[in-house]
Amino acid sequence: MLGYYLDLALRSLKRSPGLTTLMILIVGFGVAASMTSYSVFRAVSGDPIPWKSSRLFVPQIDMWGPKGRRDGTNNNEPPDAMDYTDAVAMMREHRAKYQSAMYRVSPSIVPPDASKHPINVGGHAVYSEFFPMLDVPFKFGNAWGADSDAQRAAVIVISDKLNQKLFGGANSIGKTVNIDGKDYRVTGVLDNWSPKPVFYDVVNTGGFTTGQEDVFLPFTRAIDVGMPNDGNTNCAEIPKGSGFVGLQQSSCIWISYMAELDDKAAASAYKDYLDGYFRDQKAAGRFDWPVNNRLRDLPAWLDSEHVVPSDTKISLMVALGLLVACLVNTAGLLLAKFLRRSSEIGVRRALGAPRMAIYMQFLIEAGMVGLTGGVLGLMLTWVGVRCVSWVLPKEIASLAHVDLALLMLTLAVAVLATMLAGLYPTFRASRVQPALQLKTN
Amino acid sequence: MQIQPILAALRRHKAGTLLIALQIALTLAIVCNALFIIHQRLSHLSEPSGVDEANLFVIENFWGVQYSTQEASSEIKADLAALRQLPAVEDAAPSNSYPLRGGGWDNFISLTPEQIKPTTDASVYISDESLIHTLGVKLIAGRDFTPDEVRDMGTRENIHPPVVIVSKAMADKLFPDGNALGKPLYSMSAEPTVIIGIVERLQREEVNTWSAPFVNQSLIWPMRQAIPIGLYYIVRAKPGQLAAAMQEAPKALYGRNRMRIIDSHDGLLSFAQVRQRAYNRDRGMAVLLGIICVVLLAITGAGIVGLTSFWVGQRRKQIGVRRALGATHRDILHYFLTENLLISLGGIAVGVLLTFGLNLWLVTRFELRVMPLAYVLSGVVILLLLGQGAVFAPALRASRVSPVEATRPV
């Protein structure tokens, strides 16, 4: 029977080529627009570390109190980064399984060959636990040990790309890199690691950046040599002291912090610890406002930092609206097309075809339109994702890509949506009174 | 034209009529909101920055050596002298940032030191007495800095310069009576800084939603950013010699001192590039929504054409009867145009509600502004014209149906 219906559908579609083409175009464009927008949305809203994101937490301490919220824009949220005092105190007390304070650096590397220009690199000053906490993959070597943190050792982990540039991609463990005029020993080379969004330091990167992460060096060492922070610095009041040391003594926020807590009990214990820490500081006279801390897991944190650009969400909404409009349109056209064949339906019904058979016949016709529209949509989506870099910022457009999942989804959406649009027209067609149709003709 | 018979006929096509009306309602809601967003984005694009954009470029200069404040300061002075000597260069200035850079330094500004809620927020530029000439901004009141007012600023050094030059937007915000010159302002500090000059317009370093309330509010302090990381050189080429100056400048700098980093990709930007980068996102969004609007309108129009053509085909016999009974071509044409108008009006009535609903949702969810009525009105006009235009061809075909048609069997 299926073959017969397919044949019937094909004949019917051929009978009015203009209308058929129109429906296919409408489905194709509607699906392509929404799938292109979805591919961008998917790229920016993905979980960067799905196997672990619910176990990674970002603590926030309200070290500014009400005076930090004087521009009145962020409701009652505590600051979204840490000052030096609190970050270092929390590292010292070491209450989570893994934790790391971190700040963005941008040192220069002086090549050993005196004829070459120095190069500027981006990276982070972190603690050794940063690497196991985020499951950072290594190509050569490993992270430095906790003892290097304590000794403020001149060690470094470099990216695969920088290793390529400096050592031609060879195993460079134990070699030295000259950073800001001082030698650092390479302990590890990363294996092509660039999570998007840059979830461990959203505050300083905004999540999506074209900047490279080339070097990671011990936080304690960076502070020791006075390597200034390259990320944002936010101050509720101007620091009293000058220089990088003045910044460390101030309440300005410039440090990101992340902790791994493996279960609910650990998370709630950590929250209690944060509040206890706040109360201790309050008792010591640092704060005179009530506790207002936060401990968000990674997905909640990315959401509260608005990592997915609102533009992306709006585009997706508008594109989905377009898809709905396309479906309404298709429904109207299918309705006209099906009802025009009332006499044919009448004859089939009079010859004994049950309603179910009519349903089958017309849903198959709708599905065929959907499938062809979907194939057109596939091609248009592919073109759309290619062209997205013309209109969207590079750091976002470069993340959107076509893969098998997207292709399958495009086809599925096209077929299902068109069959959905064909549901009411089919229902109407199946209600055609055979007697009436036979009589009028 | 009688409306009664049209309504009676439409009642026989309830589902089709409702679907077209729904389509029009959806299209109106989406197009109006998209147009509103597009216009908001595009209106920023052409905002002048106040600087001589045609002849300006920016060099991002990182030091390859950890200079002390004194060393960095003398390096900067030597660099500037080298840049100014170039034949294609008009002037050059050191700076911490430049307009439209996309981020940088901003401070809260108050009128009194005790004030808890700041009066406004200023984008902070630090430079020397050459900045105003280099940028080509117009000093409309007061004076420029003198060389002895300029101090070197090391890494996060706490300096409160006693004098400041502000943009007119800043001056007007602080002192609406227009007597800002000579008045003190307080920038997150108990020490005052006195306004000695006002420039006509100087755009902020960032143009985003957060800074929208403070548009064009900026200040310049007489400080040289002599820190180990580096600084920006803003260079103004002689008229028409921008390309030559952009070629010469990095060579001259490297020639003078090799231990620096000027990124081959981002280190050297003409102001046209700066502007393009700053508004990339806005332009992209406008183009994207524009494409979606055009596709949507085209699809709606095509849908109306398709459905009306079907209706015309279905009613050939009735049209023939009407023609035989004395209806003119014009009557038939008007019939279909009016029919479409009625459906469109119905769709628009629902669409206007949908439009405001969608806008309200966008306002609460994405902090967009409330849409002015003009957008809805223009959306309504667009859709009415689209409907009438789409229906015209099938209606014309209907009007050409011969009266003989009435006598033919189907």
UniProtKB/TrEMBL annotation, chain A:
The compartments listed are: Cell membrane
Note the InterPro entries from the entry: ABC3_permease_C, MacB_PCD, Macrolide_Exporter_MacB
User: What keywords appear on the UniProt entry?
Assistant: ATP-binding, Cell membrane, Membrane, Nucleotide-binding, Transmembrane, Transmembrane helix
Short name of any one Pfam family annotated for the protein? MacB_PCD
Which residue numbers delimit the MacB-like periplasmic core domain?
A: 20-271
Primary subcellular site in the record, as a coarse category: membrane
- The domain of life is Bacteria
Protein's name according to its UniProt entry = ABC transporter ATP-binding protein
Q: Which organism is it from?
A: Dyella acidisoli
> Its encoding gene is what?
ybjZ_8
TrEMBL record, chain B:
Q: Pfam families recorded for this chain?
A: FtsX, MacB_PCD
Q: What is its main location?
A: membrane
**Which compartment or compartments is the protein found in?**
Cell membrane
Q: Which regions span the lipid bilayer?
A: 20-38, 285-312, 341-362, 374-396
The UniProt record lists the MacB-like periplasmic core domain at 20-249
Give membrane topology per the record: Multi-pass membrane protein
Q: Which PANTHER family match?
A: ABC TRANSPORTER PERMEASE YTRF, MEMBRANE COMPONENT OF TRANSPORTER-RELATED
The name of this protein is: ABC transporter permease
Provide the species name. Answer: Dyella acidisoli
